[in-house]
Specification:
Elements lengths: L5 H12 L4 H8 L3 H22 L14 E4 L17 E4 L1
Antiparallel strand pairs: 1-2
Helix pairs in contact: 1-2, 2-3
Amino acid sequence: MNRLSVEKRARILGMLVEGMSLRSASRLADCSINTVTKLLVDVGMACAEFQDKALRNLNCRRVQCDEIWSVVGAKQKNVPAERVGEFGMGDVWT
């Protein structure tokens, strides 16, 4: 099994953090998109594990959250008339 060097992993993650797409990162890093996806999943699981262990018994008086806007299927203005009101179509806020 081939292994990416730590430097190459860091470079790929840096690209993703800066907002580069998975395909672009895989192309510039000269590796498979499946490799980039697996790396992203592995790092996400490691981050979740770290947060589960490190963030305990916090005495928070205030929590600030930002919303995330995305689309499912099409932007709200472009949803076909027959699909308007269908669950999950159009603008989505998380």
